[in-house]
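Hi again,

Forgot to attach this to my earlier email, sorry! This is the prediction with 1,6-di-O-phosphono-beta-D-fructofuranose bound. I've pasted everything inline since the attachment limit keeps bouncing my files.
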Amino acid sequence: MSSTISPLQKARASYKPKLPPALKNGAAVIIKEGEKTTAMADAGRIEQLFPKSYGSPVITFEKGSGAKLQKPVNVGVILSGGQAPGGHNVIAGIFDGIKSLHPESRLFGFIGGPSGLVDNKYKELTSDIIDQYRNTGGFDIIGSGRTKLETNEQFEKGKENCLKLEISALVVIGGDDSNTNACLLAEYYQQKNVPIQVIGCPKTIDGDLKNEWIETSFGFDTACRVYSELIGNIMRDANSARKYWHFIKLMGRSASHIGLECALQTHPNIALISEEVAAKKQTLDDIVSLMAEIVAKRAGSGLNFGVALIPEGLIEFIPEFKALISELNDLLAHEADTFAKLSSISEKLVFVNHKLSKDSSYVFSSLPQDIQLQLCLDRDPHGNVQVSQIATEKLLAEMVGQRLMEWKTEGKYKGKFATQLHFFGYEGRCAAPSNFDADYCYSLGFSAAALIGVGKSGYMASVRHLTKPAAEWAAGGIPITMMMNMERRHGEDKPVIQKALVKHEGGPFLNFIKNRIMWSVETDYVYPGPIQYFGPTEVCDLVTKTLELEQA
Ligand code: FBP
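Structure tokens for the complex follow:
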């Protein structure tokens, strides 16, 4: 922790996050259990793979106090994957929650993500440490990492390290893949009668870990507010200078929730939604034409400027690229050694190109070399393409520029097209959590503690009714297997939590399509400004447009 803290950080340290009513008296709760559950899809396979965890009921915490623990509990916590605003408040919530179960309970943070558990790198998180991090952004209290916890050897090492510290419960704070692995770990320990509970918490700025029970992942709210502030600032510049088209790529890996939310907050002239591209089977050429038409139309009204939002994962949703990436994933998984041994870039690209099917090779060959290379970069430990490293905004700006040149030659377009390129991702991942994320995260951590208190494992902490004031929030736990289906990863079928993509029939998307034509031709920009932490509730206690419209 730095020796100097900003005035805002100092003032923010005393913010007391709000809790759902059922947790107001502490984490010793009374629970209500629902019916036996199934899985999102492929129920038979999931049941086979998770015989102990499959079918567990949904748990709701009820108002009133349950029994406190007779003995203190030692808990381990892991931050997994990309940073998301509010992680420190989840940890503070776990800490305060387990102390309310028994004042001598202890919290250990595994350092640097899941690898900390395997390599026994940890630090005890005492109240002095926790107090310095309350309501702050970042994951720096213990660090995060992308190591995949999936082998029995790792599970065994984790067991040994936990038992040495007398840890009887682990909380994994992560996205869909990390929570999938938390469930594998929970199942393994239950099958081997290892007395360690495993609880997950839904984290990711991408907003794609959500379903009926998990209304949103934490960090999405704050990250989208930061990006929307920046987009609004750029819009005001674009509208003042009137000479640039700004192509802005927005983080969010696969789903376009971030792009959609930012579009709803700021009203850009163009916002591409990957899921729509996939549904309409739009080719790269279709997308370029669509964008060029909007540029030309605005130019026709003398508006040679604009703002276009491009979701990070777009390329994976364009059908011809989807097929190419899937072939590349399998190819690079199976031929990793040969590929690594090739010394020059051109040798690597030729090797890959020769192994591709005719159609994919055609698409691959049509791309600039830098994009070809970006598509062949190392996958992340979960087998995903690292889409944040693919310069889609550059590719599109160049292709739209070329299309407009052609139209100019044909006399169809007379405007000017100068671009500025941006990529917003890291700017928002560690921002100080908004009031919403500060409250939500603390409540998630507290719920995780409550689930530990009632002896549950293989559950994800859940806080619902989020568009209402916290005084009406409902908290509980959802069996992780309930959110799973089978998907192809690294060339194999694996059980994973189903990713939530943008729904075409959902309120946020319907609201967007109702307005986008007007936004494209007019300059109807909204300037949201920075997140407000102090002041009237109507500016400080907002929820995302996505949540509002989903629950409307
Ligand atoms: P998680 O799914 O782990 O929360 O990561 C989110 C994310 O920010 C994505 O939006 C982005 O594609 C990725 O992480 C970038 O990861 P890294 O910083 O490791 O390159």
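The pocket of 1,6-di-O-phosphono-beta-D-fructofuranose is lined by residues 81-82, 84, 175, 204-206, 251-253, 312, 386-388, 425, 429 (CB under 6 Å). The CA atoms of residues 86 and 433 lie 5 Å apart.

That should be everything now.

G.
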